[in-house]
Automatic annotation (TrEMBL):
Motif stretch ('HIGH' region): 49-59
Domain Aminoacyl-tRNA synthetase class Ia residues, every copy: 20-582
Protein name according to UniProt: Valine--tRNA ligase
Species whose genome carries this gene: Anabaena azotica FACHB-119
Membrane topology: Multi-pass membrane protein
Keywords: Aminoacyl-tRNA synthetase, ATP-binding, Coiled coil, Cytoplasm, Ligase, Nucleotide-binding, Protein biosynthesis
Protein origin, superkingdom: Bacteria
Gene name of the encoded protein: valS
Residue ranges of every copy of the Cyanobacterial aminoacyl-tRNA synthetase CAAD domain listed in the record: 827-897
Subcellular location: Cytoplasm; Membrane
Residues annotated to bind ATP: K545
Domain Methionyl/Valyl/Leucyl/Isoleucyl-tRNA synthetase anticodon-binding: 633-781
Residue interval(s) of motif 'KMSKS' region: 542-546
Molecular function via GO: valine-tRNA ligase activity
Amino acid sequence: MTATIPNLPSLYDPFTTEAKWQKFWEEHQVYKADPRAGGEPYCVVIPPPNVTGSLHMGHAFESALIDVLVRYHRMQGRNTLWLPGTDHASIAVHTILERQLKSEGKTRQELGREEFLKRSWHWKAESGGTIVNQLRRLGVSVDWSRERFTLDDGLSRAVAEAFVSLYDEGLIYRGEYLVNWCPATQSAVSDVEVESKEVDGSLWHFRYPLSDGSGYVEVATTRPETMLGDTAVAVNPDDDRYKHLIGKTLTLPIMQREIPIIGDELVDPSFGTGCVKVTPAHDLNDFEMGKRHNLPFINILNKDGTVNANGGEFAGQDRFVARKNVVSHLETDGVLVKVEDYKHTVPYSDRGKVPIEPLLSTQWFVKIRPLADKALDFLDQKNSPEFVPGRWTKVYRDWLVSLRDWCISRQLWWGHQIPAWYVVSESDGQITDTTPFVVAKSAEEAWDKAKAQFGENVQLEQDPDVLDTWFSSGLWPFSTLGWPEQTPDLAKYYPTTTLVTGFDIIFFWVARMTMMAGHFTGQMPFQTVYIHGLVRDENNKKMSKSANNGIDPLLLIDKYGTDALRYTLVKEVAGAGQDIRLEYDRKKDESTSVEASRNFANKLWNAARFVMMNLDGQTPQQLGEPKATELSDRWIISRYHQVIQQTTNYIDNYGLGEAAKGIYEFIWGDFCDWYIELVKSRLQKDADPASRRVAQQTLAYVLEGILKLLHPFMPHITEEIWQTLTQQPTDSTQTLALQPYPQAEANFINSPLEAQFDLLIGTIRTIRNLRAEAEVKPGAKIITNLQTDSESERQILTAGQSYIQDLAKVETLTIAGGEQAATVTEKKPQKGLKTIGLIIVALVLLRVAIAVGNTINHVPIFGTFFETVGLGYTIWFVSRTLLSAPARQRFLAKFFAPRPDKHISATTPQPQVAAKPEKSIAGVVGTVQVVIPLAGVVDIETLQAKLKKNISKVEAEVQSLQGRLSNPKFVDKAPQDVVKAARDALAEAEKQLEILRDRLQELQ
């Protein structure tokens, strides 16, 4: 009965395969974590993407890196949880919904808060899952049963708990302060949501007259409209030019109010004229000076960026319109001195994309120093968390040192409404800066507190503002695990193990999490922070919406498959934290780098098909582990365990790109290109059964190990092949994702053997290259001479002579060195035919001889005579050719060529062979010279003619390039990249010319 041989389709279809296994993993909850199970915990929380987002290349890169780590540690036997979720993204959702309302001719104020929030949740239900579904297409091994959203009930309770607790401890307060105001979103934004841009602007110089008429001072500013709110002019108290003016007053142009001249060390005497206008309500430095000198704070702006009533005649004008009109007014009044071009830095709102306006506002703040100092103590005393690469430690530390109080209130509706209730019955139904309030975790608790303090008839109104998004996401590592409740998840998986994130949110998010976690849990929220770089475009530029140079990962997934994209992104990483570059043809929407990874997947697929077709329907488990005896088997098993050790070392130290490249080289090179080719002859049905069995065992053993090694990087194709190789039933829930990761066994690693095999591989490769250079026909057998003075190299070459002959198509191989040589001639199948032919001819001649003899015997006298002669010849022939061994060998050699020994010792004395016969081509590998005689193998005259033609062509190219580069006009005026390309082309052409001439010389 013939065994059923499981096999794969002839072509790999990534799209069907990937969808099948993504569905299987999720339906069977393969990645569901169990806090009650054993195993050392390994926990990662996903950096929650905005619910408004869609998958971009940064998400794909980050998710691929995390998934490699998570899958690897899961296969290492750790109790693994990768927790997914999304962030509610207050400002982003507001932007989307207000754009929709604008198209309907409405505003959110007209709609009302309740209806606006209904619309927000409706939008979230319909469109908010886009990025989650796209992440599913990446095949990420997250526990979807634990998916969280920063506005879900559990996380909302955690936010209220944190706010109230910080308030009760005096670490949250409400006060008037200068905040970063975004007129576009009409909300305060934190320092980390501000992007500084260098712009070409102007520096305006004005004269402010002294009130006593004795002169004036000249001030310079980049924001002339703010002079409407000036309440002083400041000079450095050590500046001799202005010391005598300190204490005098000026008359503010346009507004005609008196303002003092003050001395403050903050003033830089070298900036402008050394006199600076002070607008405490619209500049942070001025704000601090205003507090030091008890100056009035005059706000001249509305929240939409227009001038308010304090701006006099400019009220109602947009701030930039007012700027032009103020300058025009001052010029008319004769106080404008000059205008200079001035390049300076302007803060922009990261969300609103407009210049930030410092605005005096009553907001909620966190006293940041106690939280930051505790995080600093963990860093300085315990190096916790540990940053990879380590250079980011200093960046993180410097940020913690320089933090100021954190403004956490936002003038938005979508988000966590601040858990503070104003007692409006104490302020005529209005919320004012002096209205008393209570802070509570719920409305019920707020009513109880307010009634106890203000009586039964109290009226409450909750603060309309919401909390900064980063407040809730700062709690993410522990709130997602159930905090403030002491849940099994929190007990098992907290602190989390690794945070994988980009360097651009160290300040936005990483520092927020460490400060919050240090305060509320007394631990850092993760052991390690792995900072990855950016994905740059084909021109090595940062991808951004403004530059319109993003690359859609879904487009590449649709073209090449998920595994191909994931593998490319990881393999391109050269060192932890480094940026990667993705090759991309925008005209064709194609990527050569992702295509290469798809080709790698196809290579693995075809190799797996070959292996399974030669296992006689047996699984790796049925075949058992190989007991390797042959050189090639011991070599591939040593290489396999060497790669296991290398891969685990790399992943354990976050060298994910290096690990991916090492596996690639082993699979494509060692396994597919060499080992499979080496064992093909041993897999034939008529091969030695014992050798065939070991070859099958080795192929199955290494292939299954390869699938496990590669699975964290390319999960879908490896799962598909493994299921077929191990012949899992269709109803099985077994999965490669839960198999143990290979462990390196030192007793299988044989580094000297690998080095020896490298010489064999190098020799075969050199012979193949020489064949190609000489244009030897692919099927033609050749003679090859190998010569080396190294005894050890001769032994290696002799031991592997059959591999050299099989894979390089060598008929006669001579291994020589010093006074010794060994020659092996390939046994030709034609010799058997020759022997049969000789036997047939001998039988025919014998038959003719018998017939002639019978005829002669019938002739009188001749019969007796011939019998006597025949008897004498027979006695002579036997004594001359058959009685002694040398005589027998000489006789048989006339009809049968001597068979070579199966194993020939390199020490057998033989005549020395000339190193390089005439009309030959030669190469070198190590210290071995490889010589291939070409006579009778190729048409040397035709080859010489072709080489001469190519030499003439390349000589013309060299001459042309030299002419261009010797022309000063070209070198000086052409773009530098064009000149460099010409120089590179010349160097390449000259090298090619040298090679062609050397080849021709060898044929002379």
